[in-house]
Amino acid sequence: MTTARLPDGFAVQVDRKVRVLGRGSALLGGSPTRLLRLAPAAQDMLADGRLEVRDAVSAQLARTLLDATVAHPRPAGGPSHRDITVVIPVRDNILGLKRLMSALRGLRVIVVDDGSQVPVRPEDLTGGHCCEVQVLRHPHSRGPAAARNTGLRACQTEFVAFLDSDVVPRRGWLEALLGHFCDPAVALVAPRIVGMADSGHLLARYEAIRSSLDLGGCEAPVIPYSKVAYVPSAAIICRCSALRELGGFDEALHSGEDVDLCWRFVDAGSRLRYEPIAQVEHDHRITLRDWAARKAFYGGSAAPLAARHPDKTAPMVISGWSLAGWALMAFGSALGYLVSLALAALTGQRLAKSMRGSDTVPADVLMVMLRGLAAAGLQIASALCRHYWPVALVAALFSQRFRRTLLVAAVVDGVVDWLRHARGSGDSRPLGVLAYLLIKRVDDLAYGAGLWGGVLRERNLAALKPQIRS
Questions:
Q1: pLDDT tens-digit profile of 311-356?
Q2: Is residue 269 part of a domain?
């Protein structure tokens, strides 16, 4: 597939976490981490870490930097709000719908009532909030994917925004997202989804910093197995032509249809962006029963997704060397430690060979190796506590050594996750590490239960298979 050229005036900025090596001859970073060597001409164009497209050569370099995930777009301008239609799928949430409508003044809106017990009427939504409101109805509930497709078919604009009835966009969300469509290859853009009003409720405080819908404060491309592997459809904007060409949402999926859509876009060669400057508030579930059920609901989507995308749903993506090294460390014997160190040395040697060049130094190789080993260890710990906990629990009942390993994994995974999310979250009432650990473990138990339930229903183990690389 030939990718459309970036327009003149479009700019890219190298990510601040990317390391510049050899006085600009190479860039080290991205997700996953990679070493990108630059030709002299490319170094000159990227002298200050920013590149503006002026011709075909600079456009190609900008595209390369974006696709290598070492730079982010800085578009100039963007489509108008008149080029977009907002589609709202709703079922039995008229209060949330009215709350959302009050934040959409001046926009064209299509409400799709997916079989509400009390049908949504156009007169319920009057009040001058929008330029134009159209209400469509399914006599019986067909699911959110079908509701969104119904709205898409009625759209006559170039872009469509899908907003669930339990969200409210913050000021400036639309402008921040529409600018990304200056890139003709971009088919979907998503904002950051944050919690609504602050609450003293323990689950509300946890969701404020660790919601499944909140993908963090760093901008990123949406790519499987990267920092942002998918975006939730609670709030997204799509290019209508690209979405229709793809066939819309998969109506057979009642959960995970947003993940499936993202991955089908990626397979088709489209670019997807996550833009956290744009923020949309979500009314999180905070009663324990509803909250745990929602986590299990998310887990239940893994098996159907694995049947459609077997190469994108592995609980772990890890090298065989790293897996073997951590497994030997878990045995806790002197021989295991020695063999683990030997495997680490071999891994470093292979990495040094692949990174060999005048633009790298031993410290760079060591940094990448240590980051890789740490990431592999955290992947294993997370998978044991989240995806594989039923098997891990049985093993712990019969093995004291594994029981100790599982306890260490649960604590380390929880503490690292707390450090990543709870610190600097801006929450007026920070969540302590012990409370966070407890809720995180319940979160993982609920998700894992849903995952295993889906695997049994689908009779497909693909969602549990790790991806082991050489």
A1: 999 999 988 878 888 888 777 666 666 777 776 777 666 766 666 6
A2: yes
Token digits of residue 350: 């292979």
Same domain, 262 and 323: no
Residue 245 lies in a domain: yes
Do residues 259 and 404 both lie within one domain?
no
**321-358 burial, b for 16+ CB within 10 Å, e for fewer?**
bbbebbebbbeeeeeeeebbeebbeebbeebbeebeee
Number of domains in the chain: 3
Distance separating the N- and C-terminal Cα atoms of the chain: 29
Which of 13, 21, 32, 115 lies closest to 72, judged by CA? 13
Q: Tokens at residue 317, please? A: 């993506």
Does 305 reside within a domain? no
* Length of the chain counted residue by residue: 470
| 51: β partners | 12
Supply the range of the domain harboring residue 186.
81-284
**Strand residues in 30-70 grouped as ranges (E):** 34-37, 50-52
Residue 312 lies in a domain: no
For residue 460, CA distances in Å to 133, 144, 290, 304, 456 come to 43, 24, 27, 8, 7
Which DSSP category does 290 fall into? H
- Decide: 239 and 217 in contact? Cβ < 8 Å: no
Same structural domain, 393 and 462: yes
Sheet of strand 26-29: strand arrangement: 19-21, 26-29, 34-37
Q: pTM of the entire structure?
A: 0.91
Q: Are residues 261 and 370 in the same domain?
A: no
Please, what is the Cα angle at 69 between 50 and 208, to 5 degrees? 105
- pLDDT tens by residue, 220-247: 999 999 999 999 999 999 999 999 999 9
Claim to verify: residue 57 and residue 109 sit in the same structural domain: no
Which tokens sit at 246? 């793809």
